Amino acid sequence: MEQDWILKPNGNQEYVDKLSEELTIEKPIANMLVQRGITTFEQAKSFFRPSLDDLHDPFLMKDMDKAIARLENAIINNEKILIYGDYDVDGTTSVALVYSYLKEIYRNIDYYIPDRYSEGYGISFKGIDYAEENKQTLVIALDCGIKANDKIVYANNKNIDFIICDHHNPGEKIPDAVAVLDPKRLDCDYPFDGLSGCGVGFKFLQAFSQKKGTTDNLWKYLDLVAVSIASDIVPITGENRTLAHFGLKQLNNSPRIGLKSILDFTGLLHKDISIADCVFKIGPRINAAGRIESGNSAVKLLTAQDEMYAFNMSSKINNFNETRQNLDRIITREALEMIESNENLKSRKSNVLYKKDWHKGVIGIVASRIIESYFKPTIILTESNGKATGSARSVNDFNLYDAIDECSDLLESFGGHMHAAGLTLKIENIQKFSEKFEAVVSRKISEDQLIPKVNIDSELNFSDITPKFYRIIKQFAPFGPGNMSPVYKTDNIADAGFTKIVGKDEEHLKLDLIDKTNSRIQGIGFNMAGYFKNFKQKNNIDICYSIDENEFLGKKTLQLRIKGIKINSK
């Protein structure tokens, strides 16, 4: 697929020179700091050495005082409390966090995860009925609820109070709950609005801890917060960077029993666990429980106190993940065949694909997979409870949520944000919706947004890539949106003689490269075997890449992880 490589402009040279001297680092590294808005020694110190003192006062969040007062009142009066959360990673880590923390000090507490298939996303009438049946008079809803106005009215009529802890965009009217914690509320002055759902839950507990007079017992839960931040793809800047930094420390040094068991299954135990590991190895397994069976399994694992029980739950969830992977492959293949066999679908600016028996639990993943081949806003729909339900994914800062909103007259419900959304509609409206969505996207999207972009931090010669250079770049972590792992560009490179095709299906390139300074380095290009002949024909080639370590027989060497290849015709 064609790529648009965008070289970031260099930072202010005065700041670059100053930071380079004060921090005794190479200018390309100082430049990358300035590109990230870090221009002083103090800012660099805070960036490289985050502190828990950097966390904001949780009582700056709208309704926090009301939320804490209601929780304290429930504990004093020995009310039954229900912790309610969604079935994905953010929801299940949120529930595990708040339930585990409160369970240590209060016994009259339970949790509830809605069923993806019978209840759907968010607060459900069935969940409220469960609270009524069990005489639970306070529900703490996590990672959901900001648009559940009708559900909160239903609960209020049953004398069930809700504290909502959410991070999604609110609607026009805030639900009439006892307290609604959401930094995205327009009337909320909290300094950082990029928290995950679990992050909002953490701020709720931080406020409760501060009111009690000690936060000492709080920090051990940051491993859950780090997994949620990574898996929910929220920006790893500001407060999230601090939470992720210390959460990864917890995950590496003293993870809770359930997460430790997952690490064991994934081969990550005793390795240096990163945000990418949370995204690609830990998160999918936690998610698989809610996709294939029930999110309850994930919470049971994340709150486990017994190692053997955790092992058995991890084994079960690992099997769910293998099932999820198989379904993902089958449905992705079928969806791609739909597009490839239909010239009308190929020519569209959007993808809206429906098949009644596609598995609801993996359609969001499939939407992302389709974008890898056809780079356009994509919605994958299946049938559930007599209606079409779907997951949507966007491209290049195209506002997917607004586009779906323009089609809301054809929808039963929808929710989400700029980059991802979920929706439900009548099956008979699928064709009309597909046509209207295509019209909206065609009107709003630019040709530029339909080309994948690779943002490049800096141009390098291979001679710049030294162990010291890599050691400092590693300290830019944790990486994620807003602070992505640096990407570099080197022009006019060539095969040094030993580039070859590798992989079980011969789909990857193992690269042996030399640049114009005659410096040499190894690299790996996943799914890039098609470029092999270009290297062997001695073409001048431009590459963009990140840098990582390859470990073989106990020896670590630096290698390039290729992001893109362009044949230079100059």
Kindly provide the name of the CATH class of the largest domain: Alpha Beta
**Count of helical stretches:** 20
How many strand segments? 19
The neighbouring-strand order within the major sheet is: 3-2-4-5-6
- Shape annotation: globular
Radius of gyration: 25 Å
Low-confidence stretches: none
Q: Kindly report the oligomeric state of this protein.
A: single chain
Ends distance: 21 Å
Strand content: 15-25%
Q: Level of helix content?
A: 40-55%
CATH level-two architecture of the largest domain: Alpha-Beta Complex
Written overview of the protein:
The chain is an alpha/beta fold and 570 residues long. It has 3 domains: 58-318, inorganic pyrophosphatase (n-terminal core) (Alpha-Beta Complex), CATH 3.90.1640; 342-450, Diaminopimelate Epimerase, Chain A, domain 1; 459-567, OB fold (Dihydrolipoamide Acetyltransferase, E2P) (Beta Barrel). It is built from 20 helices and 19 strands. It has helices at residues 13-23, 27-35, 41-48, 64-76, 89-103, 125-133, 149-156, 197-212, 222-231, 238-253, 257-266, 275-292, 295-302, 307-340, 343-347, 363-373, 400-405, 430-444, 467-474, 532-536, and strands spanning 4-7, 80-85, 109-112, 136-142, 161-165, 179-181, 351-354, 378-384, 387-393, 413-416, 420-425, 453-456, 458-459, 488-495, 500-502, 508-514, 520-525, 541-552, 555-567. A 5-stranded parallel β-sheet has the order 3-2-4-5-6, sandwiched between helices. Strands 7-8-9-11-10 form a 5-stranded mixed β-sheet, sandwiched between helices. Helix 16 (363-373) links the parallel strand 7 and strand 8. Helix 5 (89-103) packs antiparallel against helix 9. It is globular, with a radius of gyration of 25 Å. The mean pLDDT is 94.
